[in-house]
Specification:
Among the domains are: 86 residues, MAGE homology domain, winged helix WH1 motif (Arc Repressor Mutant, subunit A, Orthogonal Bundle), CATH 1.10.10; 92 residues, Arc Repressor Mutant, subunit A, CATH 1.10.10; 44 residues, no CATH class. It has 14 helices and 6 strands. The strands form 2 sheets. Strands 1-3-2 form a 3-stranded antiparallel sheet. Strands 4-6-5 form a 3-stranded antiparallel sheet. A hairpin with a 6-residue loop joins β5 and β6. α4 packs across α5 and α8 crosses α12. One of its GO terms (cellular component) is nucleus. This is MAGE domain-containing protein. One of its GO terms (biological process) is DNA repair.
C-alpha cells in the first residue's frame, strides 16, 4: 500500500508540471516571434538587395568584357555575354545590356553597335542560308565598340593609337588595314586575289611588311581576316580542283572604316580640290562604292532664277485686257 500511494503522488506531480504556462510568458514569446530580424530590416531577407547587387555586378562585368574585347579587336558575341556575364540569369540580357550601354556612353564616350553578318557569296553558303528556318527571329549575335565623340575630337592628337606594343606599330597597322579595306570597297566590295597581289606589289608589301611580328604579308592578311577587317572567299571554279579567290570587306571593316573612312582616305590622297574637280571626285567615289552618282550641286553651277513681278489678280488681268481692246 505505501508503494501505491507514492506512485499516485508522483503521477499528480507530473500532471502539475504539464500545466499551461502563464499568459505573460506566452505573450512574450509571441512578440519575440513577430519581431523581424536584423537581416529583414536591411532588405536582404526578401532578396531585393541581393538582386540589385547582382545586377550591378553583371553590368560591370559586361562593361569590362566590352573594353577587353575592343582592346583585343574581338567581337562581343551574344553567347560570350551569356556565359561570362549572365550565367544562369539569361533572361536579364536586355536590362543588363541597356545599363551597360549607359555606362559606356556616360563614362567612356563609346557604345556597342551590332556587327553585320558575313555575306553569303558561295553556292554552299547560299544553300546553307536557305535551309535555315525562316521563322527564327534575327537578333544581333555580335557587337563592337565605336566612339561617340564628335568629329572635331576624332583626331590623332586627341585619340592617339594604343601604346601597346607601341603607338608607331599600331598607327602603321591601322593605316594598312584602312588602305586595304578601302581598295576592296572601291572595287565594288569584291577584289580578285590577283588584283590584291598587284596592289600589294605597288605598295612594296608583296612579301614583307613593317609590322613587328607580322613581317610576312601572308601573316598580316590572316590577322586582318581573324579580326574581321577582310574576308577571303574561296569558290571552286571547276572539277579539277581549281578555285576562284577574292577578297571582301569584313564585318569589322564595314563598321570601323565604313564609307566615311573610305571617303576620307581618297580625299587625303587627292588633296584639296575645288570646284568641278571636287564634285567629280565625289561622283566617282560614290559610283565605286555602289551608291550611284552623288550629285554635288554648287551654288555657282545653279542658274539664277528669273525674277517675276507681282502676280495680278484675276479681276485686274481682265480689266487690263478690256482696256487694251478699247484702245484698239
Amino acid at each position: 500500500m505505501p508503494a501505491l500511494g507514492r506512485k499516485r503522488r508522483a503521477e499528480r506531480e507530473d500532471e502539475d508540471d504539464g500545466s499551461p504556462e502563464p499568459a505573460t510568458q506566452g505573450r512574450l514569446r509571441t512578440t519575440q516571434n513577430d519581431n523581424p530580424s536584423d537581416e529583414d530590416d536591411t532588405g536582404y531577407g526578401n532578396g531585393n538587395g541581393d538582386s540589385d547587387s547582382n545586377a550591378e555586378q553583371m553590368v560591370k562585368k559586361l562593361v569590362r568584357l566590352a573594353l577587353a574585347c575592343e582592346y583585343s579587336r574581338l567581337p562581343i558575341r551574344r553567347q560570350m555575354i551569356r556565359e561570362k556575364v549572365l550565367g544562369s540569369a539569361g533572361r536579364q540580357f536586355k536590362p543588363v545590356f541597356e545599363q551597360a550601354q549607359l555606362q559606356l556612353r556616360s563614362v567612356f564616350g563609346m557604345e556597342m553597335v551590332e556587327l553585320p553578318e558575313k555575306e553569303k557569296v558561295t553556292l554552299a553558303q547560299k544553300r546553307a542560308a536557305k535551309t535555315q528556318s525562316q521563322s527564327q527571329s534575327k537578333t544581333a549575335q555580335s557587337y563592337t565598340l565605336v566612339s561617340l565623340l564628335p568629329a572635331p575630337f576624332q583626331y590623332p592628337a586627341i585619340l592617339p593609337p594604343p601604346s601597346i606594343p607601341t603607338q608607331a606599330t599600331e598607327a602603321q597597322y591601322t593605316s594598312l588595314y584602312t588602305l586595304l579595306v578601302s581598295l576592296v570597297a572601291l572595287s565594288g566590295d569584291e577584289l580578285a586575289d590577283t588584283k590584291m597581289e598587284r596592289y600589294l606589289r605597288r605598295l612594296g608589301l608583296e612579301d614583307h611588311t613593317p609590322i613587328p611580328g607580322y613581317t610576312k604579308t601572308e601573316l598580316l592578311l590572316k590577322r586582318m581576316e581573324k579580326e574581321g577587317y577582310l574576308v577571303k572567299v574561296r569558290e571552286s571554279a571547276g572539277g579539277q580542283g581549281e578555285e576562284d579567290v577574292s577578297w571582301m570587306v569584313g564585318p569589322r571593316g564595314k563598321v570601323e572604316v565604313g564609307e566615311q573612312g573610305v571617303r576620307g582616305l581618297v580625299k587625303a590622297v587627292y588633296g584639296d580640290v575645288d570646284g568641278h574637280a571636287e564634285a567629280e571626285l565625289e561622283r566617282r567615289v560614290a559610283r565605286s562604292l555602289g551608291l550611284g552618282d552623288a550629285v554635288v550641286a554648287r551654288r555657282d553651277d545653279v542658274p539664277p532664277k528669273k525674277k517675276r513681278g507681282p502676280r495680278r489678280k484675276h479681276g485686274e488681268a481682265e480689266e487690263a485686257e478690256v482696256g487694251s481692246d478699247e484702245e484698239d
